[in-house]
Design goal:
single chain, about 35% helix, four-stranded antiparallel β-sheet
Length: about 260
C-alpha cells in the first residue's frame, strides 16, 4: 500500500482566492492586493516574485495566520473566515525558516504534531515517515543538533504527518545541496502522484518551479502580473527558461513583442 494512501479525489478546488488583500498600515501600500485565483484539486502551483512581492503574506493568509484586510479565501471548500479549523485539519505547511523546538528530539517533535492533528496510530505513522524520509538514524537526536538537510527532511515529515490534501511550501529546498534538493523534489512529486493532494509552493529556484509546477502565479508589488504554465510563460516572453522570464518581470521589461 502506498505510504500516503487512499485519499478520495476532491471534486472542489484546493484554493479559491477572491480579491485577497492585506494592508499592514493604512499609510503603506498593500502587501497583497486583489488576488483572484482558483487552484484545482491535485495540482501543483507556484508563487513567484522578488522579495516583498507578497508570497509569504499570501501563504500566511491561506493558512489563516493573517486575517485579510479584504477579500475571501476558501480552502478545500471551507471559508477561512468562518471555518478555518476544518480546513487546517486537512492541510499542512513546511518552511526551512520555521524551526522546530531544538531541545525536543525529532521523534518528540513529530509526536507533538501528530497529537495536534489527532493522527491515529501516531508511532506507526512516524515510523513510516522516518523510513520514507531517511530519518530513522536520528529520530532520537535533539532537533537542534541536525544538519540543514536533516532539518529539511524533518520539516517535510512534519508537513506530511496528517496526510494533507493541501500542502503549502515556502522555499522547500532552500540551503540544500543539489543532491538533497533533488531528493526532496522527487519526494514531493511522489506524494502528489500517490495521494492526489494539491501543492502550492513559493520558491526562488526557477528550475524547481519548472520541474514541479503545472501553473505559475507571477507576483510583483502584491499583485498577480502574469500567470500560466512554465512552458507558456517561457514561450510568451520569448525566453529560454523561467529564470529569464522572472528577470524580465522583476525589471519591468514586460512581455516580448
Amino acid at each position: 500500500m502506498p505510504l500516503w494512501a487512499d485519499m478520495p479525489p476532491m471534486p472542489i478546488p484546493a484554493i479559491e482566492a477572491q480579491g485577497l488583500t492585506k494592508t499592514y498600515k493604512a499609510s503603506d501600500p498593500p502587501a497583497v492586493e486583489g488576488l483572484d485565483f482558483i487552484q484545482p484539486a491535485g495540482s501543483t502551483w507556484a508563487l513567484l516574485g522578488g522579495n516583498g512581492a507578497g508570497k509569504s503574506t499570501t501563504i500566511a493568509m491561506l493558512l489563516g495566520l493573517l486575517v485579510p484586510s479584504g477579500g475571501r479565501v476558501v480552502v478545500l471548500g471551507h471559508d477561512m473566515a468562518r471555518d478555518r479549523f476544518a480546513a487546517l485539519a486537512r492541510m499542512n505547511f513546511s518552511s526551512p525558516y520555521v524551526a522546530l523546538p531544538h531541545r525536543l528530539t525529532v521523534r518528540e517533535n513529530l509526536m507533538v504534531y501528530a497529537h495536534l492533528y489527532t493522527v491515529p496510530h501516531a508511532p506507526d505513522r512516524i515510523a513510516e515517515l522516518a523510513e520514507r524520509l531517511q530519518l530513522t538514524a536520528f529520530l532520537d537526536r535533539p532537533a537542534g543538533q541536525l544538519s540543514a538537510g536533516q532539518k529539511t527532511r524533518v520539516a517535510i515529515a512534519k508537513s506530511l504527518i496528517n496526510r494533507p490534501e493541501l500542502l503549502l511550501l515556502d522555499e522547500p529546498t532552500a540551503s540544500l545541496d543539489p543532491d538533497t534538493g533533488d531528493w526532496v523534489r522527487s519526494l514531493l512529486e511522489d506524494y502528489r502522484a500517490e495521494s492526489g493532494a494539491a501543492i502550492l509552493l513559493a520558491s526562488h529556484n526557477m528550475a524547481e518551479v519548472e520541474r514541479l509546477a503545472d501553473h505559475v502565479l507571477m507576483l510583483k508589488g502584491g499583485r498577480i502580473v502574469d500567470q500560466g504554465s512554465p512552458a507558456d510563460l517561457i514561450a510568451r516572453y520569448g525566453r529560454d527558461d523561467l529564470e529569464q522570464v522572472f528577470l524580465d518581470i522583476a525589471r519591468g521589461q514586460g512581455r516580448a513583442a
